Amino acid sequence: MDLNILSDALFAALAAVGFSSISRLPLRAYPYCAAIAAIGHSLRYLLMLSPEPALHIFWASLIASFVIGALAVLLSPKAHTPAEACFFPSLLPMIPGMYAYKAFGGLAACVLNDDPDKFGYYFYQFASNGFVCLAVLAAMVVGATLPLFMFKKIAYQATR
Amino acid sequence: MTEAETMKTSEHDTDKVRELLTDYAGWLLGCGATCIRLEKNLRRIADAYGQNLELTITPHHVHIAIADRRDRVVFTSIAAARGGVTSFDTITRLSAFSWRIADTDMNIDEARRHFDSIVSEKPRHQWAVAPLVALANASFCRLFGGDAAAMAVVFVATLAGYCLKLWLCGLHTDIRLVFLSCSFVSSVIGASGYFFGLGSTPQLAVGTSILYLIPGVPFLNSFSDMLHRFYLCSLGRLMDALVLTACLSIGLCAGMMATGTGMF
């Protein structure tokens, strides 16, 4: 299990660094993003482990993103970047991309299938994946933004 | 108005301040800043030069009403989003720039020069982005439980798709067509694990090969704007992100149909 957590943290850090390069992150912010993403993603992994605590992806994402947001706000003055430049890239590996693509795939399959049973199945895929995707996204942003409200002075003066 | 504000603006034309505020708003919006960041930074600069400011932010424009605190003359302008590419580096520099104006006696001409140097700076290390994105997507595949073979397939599929994206964007192709084409190409290459019997998780390679196209920052910006009650911009950004996600899903479905692989 320990190795799994380490591997989860390592690959989350790599994913955060790679995806944040698309958004042209300042060079000095990469180490902070990698560290925050590793901590956040491995925390979500731990929270979703069965049999205990086995939290749903929604609650696990909410808690992990709160930790990501708090770390980003506290570290952003050191990185000398706005807090969201630290936590947005760190959140990217947690974006429920698989749910998003299954939702749209389900929608496409609905359109292409006339059979009521198949239509019902694909509509279920579309709705369940779509709702989970949107709910997890909302949880991630709420969780990561809460520390911005809590530590407004630090968050908005990081580049001062 | 404080003595410092009077000193800054009395020497210079307020038109230059308004022009700077308009251009600043356009660049910050175009670089993907959240609405709350845009509002705070613009107010900071306006305060420093003795101006009052009201904003309406839409996904591609900022409507600005600037009122001089001395003569109460109101000036309105519309700033179109500039830049067109999400850049946290530019957002960081522009935020630091707004603080510098607020904390020092920087006059408007000096501020203009500083601003122009920030927005004219070319992005660095762009050659490293494509391999980094490919590595990131391969790591994503691993996080979903993919094996080494699936990771290698995803790496190649992402690299090809991302290079195609850069090429098509260079030709100023419609972004929706870019997403559709790139997801098609990536999913076809991602399906090679099925054809050549590579590894035990080829289905994950297909699914993950297009995830680098998910518009993560627009999704996060949209929800962040919603939390800060910028509903108009939030819904616009959400629609933009959903349309792009729909385009990449159509490309993926077409790729799956072409290669005879299934999703569910």
Can you walk through the features of this model?
The complex is a heterodimer of chains A (160) and B (264). Chain A is built from 7 helices and no strands. Chain A has 160 residues and is an all-alpha fold. Chain A has one domain (2-95, 137-156). In chain A, helix 1 (2-22) crosses helix 2 (30-48) and helix 2 packs across helix 4 (83-91). The longest helix of chain A is centred in the C-terminal third of the chain and has 35 residues, at 116-150. Chain A is elongated. Chain A starts with a helix and ends with a helix. The model of chain A has no long low-confidence stretch (mean pLDDT 87). The model of chain B has no long low-confidence stretch (mean pLDDT 87). By secondary structure, chain B is mainly alpha-helical. Chain B has a 3-stranded antiparallel β-sheet. Helices cover 66% and strands 8% of the residues of chain B. Chain B has 2 domains: 3-119, no CATH class; 127-259, no CATH class. In chain B, helix 2 packs parallel to helix 5 and helix 11 runs antiparallel to helix 12 (231-259). In chain B, a hairpin with a 3-residue loop joins strand 1 (51-57) and strand 2 (61-68). Chain B has 12 helices and 3 strands, in the order αααβββααααααααα. Chain B is elongated and about 75 Å long. Classes of the chains: A mainly alpha (160), B mainly alpha (264). The interface between A and B is large, with 55 and 53 residues.
Entry summary:
Chain A is an all-alpha fold and 160 residues long. Chain A has helices at residues 2-22, 30-48, 57-79, 83-91, 97-112, 116-150, 152-156. Chain B has a three-stranded antiparallel β-sheet with strand order 1-2-3.
The proportion of residues forming helix of chain B, as a percent range, comes to 55-70%
The end-to-end distance of chain A, rounded to whole angstroms, is 42 Å
Could you give a short account of the major beta sheet of chain B?
Answer: 3 strands, antiparallel
Q: Helix amount of chain A, in percent? A: over 70%
Q: Which blocks of ≥5 consecutive residues of chain B have pLDDT under 50?
A: none
Structural class of chain B: mainly alpha
Oligomer: heterodimer
Give me the side-by-side strand order of the main sheet of chain B. Answer: 1-2-3
Order of helices and strands of chain A: HHHHHHH
Main interface pair?
Answer: A-B, 55 and 53 residues
Mean pLDDT of chain A: 87
Helical stretch count of chain B?
12
Count of discrete structural domains of chain B: 2
